[in-house]
Specification:
Strand 2 and strand 3 form a beta hairpin. It is globular and about 40 Å long. By secondary structure, it is an alpha+beta fold. The chain contains five helices and four strands, in the order H-H-E-E-E-H-E-H-H. The C terminus is likely disordered. It starts with 12 loop residues before the first helix and ends in a 9-residue tail after the last helix.
Length: 134
Amino acid sequence: MKRKIIPYNPTLKELARELRNNSTKAEIILWLKLKNKQLFGYDFHRQKPIDNYIVDFFCHELMLAIEVDGYSHQFEDVYVKDITKENKLNEFDITVIRFTDDQVLKDMENVLRAIEFYIEEYEKHTPNPSQEGN
């Protein structure tokens, strides 16, 4: 299966690096669970530029973006930007899962359960490349 090429704005690379170096506590804690292919062997990246946006975590193989929303995402203008961003990502066939800082900090078990559920559903509906052509 050929990987889909996803455009990104190269001018966001430096901002993405800054965001990686200044992660929130919730982002750091979730990253510790996602990095090094710990979740079913899938490779996640953090602060990944996609189109004109940066997503907190992204797995290309799953076409999955994970966003960890802090306090500011409760404000209407930020919420509207989040919806616009999510709609644009959906145009690239990217699914977005959102968690609040509090969910990550206080209920990591269910955060991981939600991501695992997405992966299990994805795998049910996606042909295994090693089984294609049999």
